[in-house]
């Protein structure tokens, strides 16, 4: 089997599917490799780890057909070659790569043991939205996905679509992130996609349209030349709407960049050995942020637009910082009820995002 491909296009295709390659697979050794399949002048590449699958294709010069498996580090070799066309020949489980006077050889495997990715793009009318919007929604919520497997359902994000509103929801027991967008879909959909899959999807999203096809156990994201498949998580997701505070006694409009910078300085004196909450004291016109550990002390004041009761409250610095860093707006509104009640972070206008952060009890 012989074909000629553009170096840059092939490197991009390899790296696009590499995120789904399971290099440590023991149950199915073939999954440690990328599947290359040639047919009718198109070279299709597939990475699959039984939970996530990514496929893409590029045009090549060839009249041949066939399939083989190759290590994803072939991209590192190609990156060292000059730009332009590269010739590939597969024979007797050996790949020969030629360009000009350069010739390199790599072992390959037969593709007979490579499992097929389940087909899910014929199941229903797809959910359709722009890739840019979907990427923003993922990036602004995925930080709140649970890391612990104690509640497996919370290691994913909820796709909650109802009455033309799409809520993407992540919760880990300490914080909640909701990203909302209007969408031209009337039927209700409710499913949970693993956070690992969404992080990989975010890396692939660029411009154009994204189509989401869902079956009872799987979902496929069709990005045009790239398709990503994922299994869905099973179980009952947390009733996130019931967790949102109904009222607040204190609210403040805060400059996002100023509070992010201050919290980042606090984080410099906090680590596993020097743990301490960050204390926020709200008063008329100003917010006092303090943090003290054996590694140092931060005591800063930033101006705010303040309404309601004065209040002091403590937070895990990292959790609070994640909420502010991912809001995507110049200013935010922070609403609080009591020193022991969750704080809500929202946009100053509209309802595109809602972040909820649980407080930390302060010592006297």
Could you give a quick summary of the protein structure above?
The protein has three domains: 2-110, DNA Polymerase III, Chain A, domain 2 (Roll), CATH 3.10.150; 127-242, Roll (DNA Polymerase III, Chain A, domain 2); 245-357, DNA Polymerase III, Chain A, domain 2, CATH 3.10.150. Helix content is 16%, strand content 43%. The protein has helices spanning 7-18, 74-79, 131-139, 195-204, 256-267, 317-325, and strands at residues 2-6, 34-39, 42-48, 52-59, 66-70, 85-91, 94-99, 102-107, 109-110, 127-130, 156-162, 165-171, 175-182, 189-194, 209-214, 218-222, 226-231, 250-255, 278-283, 286-293, 296-308, 311-315, 331-336, 343-347, 353-357.
At the fourth level of CATH, the homologous superfamily of the largest domain is DNA Polymerase III, subunit A, domain 2
Overall strand count = 25
Give a quick account of the main beta sheet: strands, pairing sense, barrel closure: 12 strands, antiparallel
Compute the CA-based radius of gyration: 25 Å
Description:
There is one protein chain. The protein is of the alpha+beta class and 364 residues long. The protein has 3 domains: 2-110, DNA Polymerase III, subunit A, domain 2 (DNA Polymerase III, Chain A, domain 2), CATH 3.10.150.10; 127-242, Roll (DNA Polymerase III, Chain A, domain 2); 245-357, DNA Polymerase III, subunit A, domain 2 (DNA Polymerase III, Chain A, domain 2), CATH 3.10.150. Helices cover 16% and strands 43% of the residues. It has 6 helices and 25 strands. The protein has helices at residues 7-18, 74-79, 131-139, 195-204, 256-267, 317-325, and strands at 2-6, 34-39, 42-48, 52-59, 66-70, 85-91, 94-99, 102-107, 109-110, 127-130, 156-162, 165-171, 175-182, 189-194, 209-214, 218-222, 226-231, 250-255, 278-283, 286-293, 296-308, 311-315, 331-336, 343-347, 353-357. The strands form 3 sheets. The chain has a 12-stranded antiparallel sheet with strand order 14-11-12-13-25-24-23-18-21-20-19-22. It has a 9-stranded antiparallel sheet with strand order 9-5-2-3-4-17-16-15-10. A hairpin with a 3-residue loop joins β16 and β17 (226-231). α3 (131-139) crosses α4 and α5 packs antiparallel against α6 (317-325).
